[in-house]
Design a protein that fits this description.
The chain is an alpha+beta fold and 59 residues long. It has a single domain, classed as Roll (SH3 type barrels). The protein has one helix and five strands, in the order αβββββ. The relative contact order is 0.31.
Amino acid sequence: MNLNRVKQILSSSADIEVKYNGASVWIDQLNEDGRTATVHLRGPLEERSTVEIHELVEE
């Protein structure tokens, strides 16, 4: 995924499915470096991870 698409998803009120390593995630924020984002798994676990945005896939 590219930087502009991450920004669009973050500003959208729509439920846009994004996957990281095959797991469905929510994007919490774009990090200041512009290359990584903080995400967490959809579901009961709220564990957050920092991932490279190019590794995110929109379904």
